């Protein structure tokens, strides 16, 4: 199996959906809309919208940045996923 095809299978997988759920819950706890989060991340609104819709992956660096912008502990958020 090619490496790229294995990675594609993680998109919308149960674990990917769990990750998105953790990020959405943290955003909602922070009282932010998708647009407000995107502004704080200095990214287009579509970045957050596509991420929360499960249409794009979140890399580790992005995950840490998002958690910090939300005032959350990235390590604790990651532990929820494990």
What is the molecular shape?
globular
Class, according to the CATH hierarchy?
Mainly Alpha
Number of helices: 6
Radius of gyration (CA) equals 13 Å
Number of domains: 1
Helix content: 55-70%
Which stretches of 5+ consecutive residues score pLDDT under 50?
Answer: none
Number of strands: 0
CATH superfamily: lambda repressor-like DNA-binding domains
What are the key terms here?
single chain; 82 residues; mainly alpha; 434 Repressor (Amino-terminal Domain); 6 helices
Explain what the structure shows:
With 82 residues, the protein is an all-alpha fold. The protein has a single domain (3-81), classed as 434 Repressor (Amino-terminal Domain). The protein is 68% helix and 0% strand. The chain is built from six helices and no strands. The chain has helices at residues 3-8, 14-29, 34-41, 45-52, 60-69, 74-81.
Indicate the topology:
Elements lengths: L2 H6 L5 H16 L4 H8 L3 H8 L7 H10 L4 H8 L1
Summarize the structure.
By secondary structure, the chain is mainly alpha-helical. 68% of the residues lie in helices and 0% in strands. The chain has six helices and no strands.
